[in-house]
Amino acid sequence: MANSVRDDLLAAGLMVFDRVGFEAATVAAIRARARASNGSFFHVFGSKKELAGALFLEVLRHYHAAVLAALDPVPDAEQGIDRLIRAHLDWVVTSRREARYLFEISRSEWGEDVRDAQRAQNARLAEGIERWRAPLVASGELLPMTPVMFVSQLIGPAQIFCRAYLSGRDRTDPRIEADTLIACANRALRPCDRINKQ
After folding, report:
1. Domain locations in the chain?
2. Distance, CA of 180 to CA of 91 (rounded, Å)
3. CA 187, 132, 55: angle at the middle one, nearest 5?
4. Is 128 in contact with 71 (CB distance < 8 Å)?
5. What is the CATH code for 59-189?
6. pLDDT (tens digit, 0 to 9) for every residue of the chain, 198 residues total?
7. Architecture of 1-46 per CATH?
8. Distances (CA, A) of 90 to 72, 85, 175
């Protein structure tokens, strides 16, 4: 029962934050959307900020799961780059409200309370990517670079398109640029001689 109320409040919070932003959102509006009493809300969350932090972690977990699913079964370098970029683009488009919350609405100043949990989730994502990447670096299929640089080269360009889409500045589905983004990532992340063999 408590989990159901919590899930309802998180879903309602996402809807309200997406519609009016974090600052303008009220506990009353979230409660009304979730059809939850004042007592129910404060039994589960101490404040709007606490709900926002819990929602951030929940959305982050869904995003990371979508990304890591792209590495199962374990792909080669070319397939992995392709699948990871497409997984990012697909999640942003098919989970647009969650993506807007994660990349556009969430703010670090109210996320301090969840920072350790966020770091732990980010570490699990990094470990999952590294388990796939490290053997490919060792075999010369991927260029050696830090994990942070790898992810920035892999997802960074796609994220620029996604942010424009999420903010409404560009209504074009960012997935139409997938092939170009993948080709660019291959040039940035793989030795030239490995790319030219295809």
Report:
1. 1-46, 59-189
2. 18
3. 100
4. yes
5. 1.10.357.10
6. 567 999 999 999 999 999 999 999 999 999 999 999 999 999 999 999 999 999 999 999 999 999 999 999 999 999 999 999 999 999 999 999 999 999 988 876 666 778 899 999 999 999 999 999 999 999 999 999 999 999 999 999 999 989 999 999 999 999 999 999 999 999 999 999 887 554
7. Orthogonal Bundle (1.10)
8. 16, 9, 7
Tokens at residue 33, please?
């959307």
* The amino acid at 71: L
Q: Which residue in 146, 167, 142 sits closest to 81, CA to CA?
A: 142
Could you tell me how many residues make up the chain? 198
Distance CA 37, CA 28 (A): 9
pTM over 0.85: yes
End-to-end CA distance of the chain: 55
Q: Residue 33 carries which side chain, given as an amino acid letter?
A: R
